[in-house]
Automatic annotation (TrEMBL):
Residues 1-28 are annotated as: Disordered. Belongs to the peptidase C14A family. GO terms for biological process: execution phase of apoptosis; positive regulation of neuron apoptotic process; protein maturation; proteolysis. The keyword Protease applies. InterPro entries: Caspase-like_dom_sf, Caspase_cys_AS, Caspase_his_AS, Pept_C14, Pept_C14_caspase, Pept_C14_p10, Pept_C14_p20, Pept_C14A. Residues 103-169 form the Caspase family p20 domain. Keywords: Acetylation, Apoptosis, Cytoplasm, Hydrolase, Phosphoprotein, Protease, Thiol protease, Ubl conjugation, Zymogen. GO terms for molecular function: cysteine-type endopeptidase activity. It comes from the Eukaryota. PANTHER family: CASPASE, CASPASE-7. This is Caspase-7 isoform X2.
Length: 281
């Protein structure tokens, strides 16, 4: 239940099970039994092709998160159509890919793709995301798609959306007037392209901080991302959309918990862009 400002509030009329659905939690380091598989063994992925490929990591045994994945699929699929390359498991967008690894994906022929997109939803800490076999360095994964390692994605946008904690700090929030800032950069065409060019990283939170989710509605970041893609996915440039995602997360969400240590906290996503062109879906 939310108030007009979008703040999650307790409902005295609901039973304990529903109250658990309302209480916000953080995506910090999980217990081993609650980690999902990462690279290699028993991955569950969602993929869309045309104009690009979208992967989505899943956690085992969380039905609510599966429902949210289905909603996200319906939202994004008009731009990112799916193509099943591996054995399906459960819903049509969930696949079981026991032999998949990022190196194989990087070496695939992406000539018919306009861009590459990857979404991770897991627990984590700064620079790492968790799987059943332990933490995985995000940089190690994304490096496989650099221009010098994945030739068919040279000059194409490579998007990574990461829903996970990046530390253990809380954002208490503060009352302040907002201000608008605009930055422009100019670049000249070059014959050589930097190997780190055309990446975009959209993190659910800034370095050092917790990332919040609601067990009933999903993570704040993914809720806002899906809402913006659904509303503006065919109209706005990707950085314009992510700015709106930042606004929604910053202004429409505030944590609620029976534990005062986790109550009334805020969150702001973080976008790091090395794109060299505007991107419209």
């Amino acid at each position: 239940m939310t108030d007009p400002q979008g703040v999650l509030q307790p409902s005295p009329e609901r039973d304990d099970e529903v109250k658990d659905q309302q209480e916000d939690v953080v995506d910090a380091k999980p217990s081993r039994s609650n980690r999902f598989s990462f690279l290699g063994r028993h991955l569950r992925l969602v993929s869309w092709y045309f104009p690009s490929l979208l992967w989505r990591k899943k956690k085992d045994g969380e039905e609510e998160r599966q429902d949210n994945a289905n909603i996200s699929y319906r939202v994004v699929s008009p731009a990112f159509q799916y193509k099943m390359n591996y054995k399906k498991l459960g819903r049509c967008v969930i696949i079981n890919n026991k032999n998949f690894d990022a190196q194989t994906a990087a070496e695939e022929n992406h000539n018919d793709c306009a861009c590459f997109a990857c979404i991770f939803l897991s627990h984590g800490e700064e620079g790492f995301i968790y799987g059943t076999d332990g933490p995985m360095c995000i940089k190690k994964l994304t490096t496989m798609f650099r221009g010098d390692r994945c030739k068919t994605l040279v000059g194409k946008p490579k998007l990574f959306f990461i829903q996970a904690c990046r530390g253990s700090e809380f954002d208490e929030g503060i009352q302040a007037d907002s201000a608008n800032h605009s930055l422009e950069t100019d670049a000249s065409p070059r014959h050589k392209i930097p190997i780190e060019a055309d990446f975009l990283f959209a993190y659910s939170t800034v370095p050092g901080y917790y990332s919040w989710r609601n067990p009933g509605n999903g993570s704040w970041f993914v809720q806002a991302l899906c809402q913006v893609l659904s509303t503006y996915g065919r109209q706005l440039e990707v950085l314009q959309m992510l700015t709106r995602v930042n606004y929604l997360v910053a202004n429409n969400f505030e944590s609620w918990s029976e534990d005062s240590r986790f109550c009334a906290k805020k969150q702001i996503p973080c976008v790091v862009s090395m794109l060299t062109k505007e991107l419209y879906f």
